[in-house]
């Protein structure tokens, strides 16, 4: 069975947006983290989606902690993950993605295999 994994591709830094002000932001910078989804296959991608939905429900239910990056801001494709976060939230973002992968792999192990069709003799 192929388990889900991600590998960090890059982390690029940019000034934090000023949120409607013409003045540049004085504190913090945004970093875009990019990851490649590895060894997923169809079942792995489904497990990743399942784990992501569960984590988002938990986040929406309990609310985000101060300075905690929201998994809802991460952009997922079948092959990549891109997530722009404040520079001080990089470690928390990486930890959240590690938890996501761990949950996806647990879900993948627990997922029933596709039913086999029996051929008439």
Question: Mind explaining what this structure looks like?
Answer:
This protein has about 120 residues and is α+β, with helices and mostly antiparallel strands. The protein has one domain (about 5-15, about 30-110). Helix content is about 35%, strand content about 25%. The chain has 2 helices and 4 strands, in the order ββαββα. The protein has a 4-stranded antiparallel sheet, covered by helices on one side. The protein is globular. The mean pLDDT is about 85.
Calculate Rg over CA atoms.
18 Å
How much strand?
A: 15-25%
Shape: globular
Termini, distance in Å? 29 Å
Mean pLDDT: 84
Give the beta-strand count: 4
Largest sheet: 4 strands, antiparallel
Number of helices in the DSSP assignment: 2
Overall structural class, as computed from helix and strand content, comes to alpha+beta
> Looking across the biggest beta sheet, what order are the strands in?
1-2-4-3
Number of domains: 1
The helical percent reads: 25-40%
Low-confidence stretches: none
What are the secondary-structure elements, in order, as H or E? EEHEEH
Blueprint (SSEs and pairs):
Blueprint: E1 5-15, E2 29-38, H1 41-62, E3 75-76, E4 80-86, H2 90-110
Antiparallel strand pairs: 1-2, 2-4, 3-4
Descriptive keywords:
globular, 25% strand, single chain, four-stranded antiparallel beta sheet, alpha+beta, 121 residues, 2 helices
Q: What's a quick, concise take on this entry?
A:
This protein is α+β, with helices and mostly antiparallel strands and 121 residues long. The chain has 2 helices and 4 strands, in the order ββαββα. The chain has one domain (5-14, 29-110).
